[in-house]
Amino acid sequence: EIPEKQAMEQIFEALGSAEPTAMPEQSLLQYFAGAGIDSRVIDLADAIYANDYGAVSSDVGLRETIQEQRRWKYGEKYLVLSGACLQDVMDELSIGLDVRCGWTVTRIE
């Protein structure tokens, strides 16, 4: 296994045992930088977890990441799309729905 990947996995595992309210309100990237995490490990975390979180580490909250790590119970085998993307899933799920972009929501039924 790649040492950077192993280091990244250990960091995320450790976050699962942290108390969210004891941590400062900051981004995951700020936490990584403050903890002295190697830039290669940060880049790898961005490449892998950006898909999970739908954002890069500078846009993901540390406390939110801790909560997700604490509550995740599905292992590493989850939502794998072969030859598709999440937009394809949304398109399929939206069939038959009246989807309007740019409209102010007044009621949801």
Q: How would you describe what is shown here?
A:
- The chain is mainly α and 109 residues long.
- The protein has one domain.
- Helices cover 49% and strands 0% of the residues.
- The protein is built from five helices and no strands.
What low-confidence regions span 5 or more consecutive residues with pLDDT below 50? none
SSE string, helices as H and strands as E: HHHHH
Strand content: under 5%
Question: Rough shape?
Answer: globular
Average pLDDT score: 86
Q: Helicity level, as a percent range?
A: 40-55%
The overall strand count is 0
Query: What Rg is obtained from the alpha carbons, in whole angstroms?
Result: 17 Å
Q: How many structural units, i.e. domains?
A: 1
Structural class label: mainly alpha
Biggest sheet character: none
- First-last Cα distance: 50 Å
Short description:
The chain has helices spanning 3-15, 28-34, 39-53, 62-71, 86-93. The protein is mostly helical and 109 residues long. It has one domain.
Which structural traits does this protein have?
single chain; mainly alpha; 109 residues
Q: What is the topological layout?
A:
Blueprint: H1 3-15, H2 28-34, H3 39-53, H4 62-71, H5 86-93
Helix pairs in contact: 1-3
